[in-house]
């Protein structure tokens, strides 16, 4: 598939020209999978809920899948009831716009829009890259972010949240790739897990 690299002028300009107070990157290795194997599973902008342990739903809100400008709706799992039997708060949710998609270089870049988690401007890039020669075989999942500070929170909390989610995705990719290889050896097909089959790390969405 040819790379789709057209991006939103407003979103790209905001991300490129601004000096961000919060920015960073988290990385999770997947020794069992090649970059191509991992990208084949994670490249679908609308399949976040199949691989991320904190996401219960991810669906197209508008636009054409994998084309810049499409918008996805993501929702976290339902939080538990509050203390004393108080009703549970609503699950986290966000609309996110795909700004750039490059299959050849295995990455997509997106912007968070309206959400109930307190985020203002937020841009992220998800990448799958071959492991460095010194690290041996396999690949790395990388999540880069640039955003405004979130009131009442700390940058370290966001980094920890992203890292936990990415580690969960790496584990799901590893398990699926190994299962697929075993199935191929046995002559039976392997399928991607459904969202409900994933063990949730906690009740909050990661971005």
TrEMBL record:
Subcellular localization, as worded in the UniProt entry: Nucleus
GO cellular-component term (any): nucleus
A family per Pfam: Polyketide_cyc2
Chief location: nucleus
TM region positions: none
Entry-linked InterPro entries: LFS, Polyketide_cyclase/dehydratase, START-like_dom_sf
Gene3D superfamilies: 3.30.530.20
PANTHER family found in the cross-reference section: LACHRYMATORY-FACTOR SYNTHASE (PTHR33789), OS12G0529500 PROTEIN (PTHR33789:SF2)
UniProt protein name: Lachrymatory-factor synthase
């Amino acid at each position: 598939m040819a790379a789709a690299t057209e991006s939103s002028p407003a979103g790209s300009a905001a991300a490129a020209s601004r000096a961000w107070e919060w920015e960073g990157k988290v990385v999770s290795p997947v020794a069992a999978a090649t970059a191509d194997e991992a990208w084949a599973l994670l490249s679908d902008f609308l399949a976040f809920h199949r691989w991320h342990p904190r996401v219960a739903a991810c669906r197209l809100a508008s636009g054409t899948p994998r084309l810049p400008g499409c918008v996805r709706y993501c929702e976290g799992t339902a939080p538990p009831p509050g203390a004393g039997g108080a009703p549970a708060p609503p699950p986290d949710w966000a609309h996110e716009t795909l700004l750039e998609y490059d299959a050849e270089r295995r990455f997509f870049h997106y912007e968070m829009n309206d959400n109930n988690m307190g985020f203002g401007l937020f841009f992220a890039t998800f990448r799958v890259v071959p492991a460095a020669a010194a690290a041996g075989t396999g690949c790395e999942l990388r999540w880069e972010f640039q955003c405004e500070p979130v009131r009442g929170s700390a940058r370290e909390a966001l980094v920890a949240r992203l890292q936990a989610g990415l580690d969960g995705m790496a584990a799901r990719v590893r398990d699926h790739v190994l299962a697929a290889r075993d199935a191929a050896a046995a002559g039976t097909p392997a399928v991607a897990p459904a969202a409900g089959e994933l063990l949730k790390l906690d009740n909050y969405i990661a971005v």
